[in-house]
Amino acid sequence: MASKELLDKLNDAIAREIQVSVQYMWQHVMVKGLPAASLGGIFKEIAITEMKHAEEIAERLDYLGGVPTTKPTPIEIGKTAKEMLGVNKKAEEGAIALYKEIIALADKEGDVVTSSLFTGILEDEEEHHNTFSTLLED
């Protein structure tokens, strides 16, 4: 059975995924000016991916006997396209760090399925981080 620490970290991951799915979708709606044409679609696409992550993690947590949270971590929208990209890059950095912890803990507990799930999600998060980082470059 999964440790309380692992279950808690999975809930932290769900809270983050809910946060960014709302954050990026609202940015999709709220981004203005010239960047709106290109960024709006990127924000929307990544928001949908993040909601799918929340679902996958919640299903895993439920299977392991935990109760998935419904509360997101604090949502930051930003006012300008550059601010939005900055807060998103920071959010992805936090997710990457957490997911590496979860993979290490799952491996330590012999939970191959959770480790595999987060390895796949980590790949997506690194891609999102790269997208936001690239778009922030002048």
Largest sheet, in brief, is: none
Helical segment tally?
Answer: 4
Q: What is the quaternary state of this protein? A: single chain
Secondary structure: number of strands: 0
Q: Spans with pLDDT under 50 lasting ≥5 residues?
A: none
Q: How far is the N terminus from the C terminus?
A: 49 Å
Give the SSE order as H and E letters: HHHH
Which structural class matches the secondary elements?
mainly alpha
CATH superfamily: Ferritin, core subunit, four-helix bundle
Tally of discrete structural domains: 1
Proportion of beta-strand residues: under 5%
The shape is elongated
Instruction: Please state the second-level CATH architecture.
Output: Up-down Bundle
Helix content: over 70%
Just give the CATH class: Mainly Alpha
Radius of gyration, taken over Cα atoms and rounded to an integer in Å: 15 Å
As for the CATH topology, it is: Ferritin
> What is the average of the pLDDT values?
97
Can you describe what's shown?
With 138 residues, the chain is an all-alpha fold. It has a single domain, classed as Ferritin, core subunit, four-helix bundle (Ferritin), CATH 1.20.1260.10. Helix content is 78%, strand content 0%. α3 packs antiparallel against α4. The longest helix is centred in the middle third of the chain and has 28 residues. The chain is elongated, with a radius of gyration of 15 Å.
